[in-house]
Amino acid sequence: MSVLDNFDTWKAFLADRLQQAESQGMGQQTISNMAYEVGDYLAANTDAKNNEEAVLQEIWTAASDDERHAIASAMVKLVQNQGNA
Questions:
Q1: CA 84, CA 65: separation in Å to the nearest integer?
Q2: Which residues contact 39 (CB under 8 A, 6 or more apart)?
Q3: Cα(25)–Cα(3) distance, rounded to whole angstroms?
Q4: Computed over its alpha carbons, how large is the radius of gyration of the chain?
Q5: Which one-letter DSSP state was computed for residue 25?
Q6: Coil, helix or strand for 71?
Q7: Distances in Å between the alpha carbon of 41 and those of 24, 46, 58, 68?
Q8: 70: part of which helix (H) or strand (E)?
Q9: Residue 65: exposed, middle, or buried by beta-carbon count in 10 A (0-12, 13-18, 19+)?
Q10: pLDDT in tens, 1-35
Q11: Contacts of 18 (CB under 8 A, 6+ apart)
């Protein structure tokens, strides 16, 4: 199973990477930029495994660059908030 096989696995993977980035002293903007780059890669190079992933991929593709940065920032906040719950 690859890390992209389901959304929960992806969120756990992102949470691990965020924890590593924060422990290395990376700022919020750097972390958000990293999430943006990963999102861009995933949208361009992976196939959606379910309807939810297909919707996310379509939203990413339709979004402007600024909107994609906002989506990436929201994903970072989602993962960070779940870690604090």
A1: 29
A2: 60, 68, 71, 72, 75
A3: 25
A4: 13
A5: T
A6: helix
A7: 23, 8, 14, 12
A8: helix 65-84
A9: exposed
A10: 454 566 677 777 788 888 888 888 988 888 888 88
A11: 31, 76, 79, 80
The reply to whether the predicted model has a pTM over 0.90 is no
Place of tokens 């890669």: 41
Instruction: Kindly report the backbone phi and psi dihedral angles of residue 35, in degrees, each rounded to the nearest multiple of 5, phi listed first.
Output: -65, -35
The rounded distance, in Å, linking the Cα atoms of 13 and 79 is: 10
Beta carbons of 14 and 75 less than 8 angstroms apart: yes
pLDDT in tens, 29-38: 888 888 888 8
First to last CA, the chain: 27
Which amino acid appears at position 14 of this protein?
A: L
